[in-house]
Amino acid sequence: MRALLAAGAISLAFTLFLTPAFIWLFRKWKWGQFIREDGPKTHHIKRGTPTMGGVVIIFASVIGYFTGKLINGETPSISALLVILAMVGLGIVGFIDDFIKTHKQRSLGLGGWAKIAGQAVVAVAFAFFAFGSPNERGVTPASTQISVIRDTGFDLMMFGSVVGSILLVLWIFLLISATSNGVNITDGLDGLAIGASIMAIGAYAVIGFWQFNQACGRVIENVASCYEIRDPLDLAVIAAAITGAGIGFLWWNTTPAQIIMGDTGSMSLGGALAALAILSRTEILLVLVGGLFVIVTGSVILQRAYFKITKGKRIFLMSPLHHHFELKGWAEITVVVRFWIIAGLSVLSGIGLFYLEWIYG
After folding, report:
1. Would residue 134 be called left, alpha or beta, if left means φ above 0 and alpha means ψ between -120 and 50 degrees?
2. Mind telling me which residue stretches traverse the membrane in this protein (predicted)?
3. What is the per-residue pLDDT across 155-199, written as a single tens digit (0 to 9) for each?
């Protein structure tokens, strides 16, 4: 518990008090946001706002986690290091994308296939360590079974070692790619994506702590409902560190944003969220915990599909969904707060379902 509280507090203090220094530095380096001409006109005033703020979030999260562990006299676990791997790895992909945009002053950074390649490299590295680092009881950080709130019994290795291994890597890639892209697509308004990410990742601090208290080999009662997770408490610690970093960053990212987290932040947060779901055996539950990201991403898919089918017609005035409501006349802060409410309700539903499964599962 001490490591969890320390990690969250230190990362929060880092972003809350040191972000202004990064804002000054990014202005000096001319890392300013490029704004699309075809987007909402109200966004044009954001042109030049320092971007790549995800760098601050990543630094704060890593420093908060390792300092919290040091204070508690503990060594980092492989599970937490895997979350950091996913976060930093996708943060690098996002940073390259952001850097190209700011350097070339254009809306397109990395091409679609280049992003997918970067996500694939991170997914393969993640899978290699996640399935190859068992503890003394033989429990690996990730499971070969598809999980909802815990393992379902549907084991991908039943297709054989070669095919099963390929399917596992593809499954990890799908989760990491979908989640990082979902957070990235949602990052279009001041504070929107970071606020929703705080709630979703904060939920995994709660889930990890609960799984630790109800870990197999630790509980006496409700043994049938215990959790066989590699490092549940450490997953809670790294989730708390990322949540704290996000809260401190939101202070500076709220409307009007003084710094934008960019693809560096959105992709790294999406990677961390996917990693937490995989390692806590709650992969399908992520659809509910990250419900806002699913809705916003779905709006883009629907818009594009409908546009192609009808040869030019649209469902929304503009996608992603938050821009549709802006063009309908909603103030930016109104869209953000209402979407936060949706995100919060979705997260609460996910935690509620997680708890109900423990009671009645």
Report:
1. beta
2. 6-26, 47-66, 78-96, 108-131, 156-176, 188-212, 232-252, 284-307, 335-356
3. 999 999 999 999 999 999 999 999 999 999 999 899 999 999 999
